[in-house]
From TrEMBL:
<keyword id="KW-0067">ATP-binding</keyword>
<dbReference type="GO" id="GO:0009396">
    <property type="term" value="P:folic acid-containing compound biosynthetic process"/>
</dbReference>
<dbReference type="GO" id="GO:0046872">
    <property type="term" value="F:metal ion binding"/>
</dbReference>
<dbReference type="InterPro" id="IPR024185">
    <property type="entry name" value="FTHF_cligase-like_sf"/>
</dbReference>
<dbReference type="GO" id="GO:0030272">
    <property type="term" value="F:5-formyltetrahydrofolate cyclo-ligase activity"/>
</dbReference>
<dbReference type="InterPro" id="IPR002698">
    <property type="entry name" value="FTHF_cligase"/>
</dbReference>
<dbReference type="InterPro" id="IPR037171">
    <property type="entry name" value="NagB/RpiA_transferase-like"/>
</dbReference>
<keyword id="KW-0436">Ligase</keyword>
<dbReference type="Pfam" id="PF01812">
    <property type="entry name" value="5-FTHF_cyc-lig"/>
</dbReference>
<feature type="binding site">
    <location>
        <position position="48"/>
    </location>
    <ligand>
        <name>substrate</name>
    </ligand>
</feature>
<feature type="binding site">
    <location>
        <begin position="132"/>
        <end position="140"/>
    </location>
    <ligand>
        <name>ATP</name>
    </ligand>
</feature>
<feature type="binding site">
    <location>
        <position position="55"/>
    </location>
    <ligand>
        <name>substrate</name>
    </ligand>
</feature>
<keyword id="KW-0547">Nucleotide-binding</keyword>
<keyword id="KW-0479">Metal-binding</keyword>
<dbReference type="GO" id="GO:0005524">
    <property type="term" value="F:ATP binding"/>
</dbReference>
<feature type="binding site">
    <location>
        <begin position="3"/>
        <end position="7"/>
    </location>
    <ligand>
        <name>ATP</name>
    </ligand>
</feature>
<comment type="similarity">
    <text>Belongs to the 5-formyltetrahydrofolate cyclo-ligase family.</text>
</comment>
Length: 187
């Protein structure tokens, strides 16, 4: 399927989820993450969900990371350059929604992408080869291309893999894993 078709399909499927289903599925995803070989790493990048887009609630993952004493990194997006700046999440971090309802840090201690070891990647859909479909702005592909090649990229999805995404670009960065409430995909 084409990315455009997948975006429409999965936005519609998300809208059918109740608030309770969204929470239960988000918790199931967090629990599945415990089985991944990532917990010896220190620097974890996570997205804060856009609740209006019914994204995976990453609060459960934040609790896991915090409980395991990991360094948690969140980003701020620049829509002119399509780049993200990454900040350490601390007790003093102030979070504010931007004009696109993305919760972001106001400021803080900046962390370079080459220091990040694990990235939890938001997505709308993914295929069995580890290709993903996001919102189409390229923020995560830009960001992931700045990370080290050994950085572990983990997609989080409410839904299982599509067979194939047909319009892949050279600049698209593949995932290493994708975790759904029922499965762990390894690529």
């Amino acid at each position: 399927m084409l990315k455009k078709e997948l975006r429409q399909k999965y936005k519609a499927l998300r809208k059918q989820l109740s608030e309770n289903e969204l929470e239960e599925m988000s918790l199931a995803i967090a629990n599945k993450l415990l089985k991944l070989p990532i917990w010896e790493k220190s620097y974890f990048h996570i997205f804060l969900p856009i609740t209006e887009h019914l994204e995976v609630n990453t609060e459960f993952i934040l609790h896991l990371l915090s409980g395991k004493d990991k360094e948690i990194i969140i980003s701020k997006s620049d829509f002119e350059t399509r780049k993200m700046t990454h900040f350490l999440l601390t007790d003093n971090t102030k979070i504010k929604k931007n004009e696109y309802n993305i919760p972001e840090p106001v400021d803080g201690i900046e962390v370079p992408p080459n220091k990040i070891e694990v990235v939890f990647v938001p997505l709308l859909a993914f295929d069995k080869k580890g290709h993903r479909v996001g919102y189409g702005k390229g923020f995560y592909d830009n960001f992931l291309s700045e990370c080290k090649s050994e950085t572990i990229k983990i997609g989080l999805s409410f839904f299982e893999a599509e067979e194939s995404i047909t319009d892949i670009f050279k600049s698209d960065i593949q995932l290493d894993f994708c975790v759904t409430p029922n499965s762990i995909y390894s690529f």
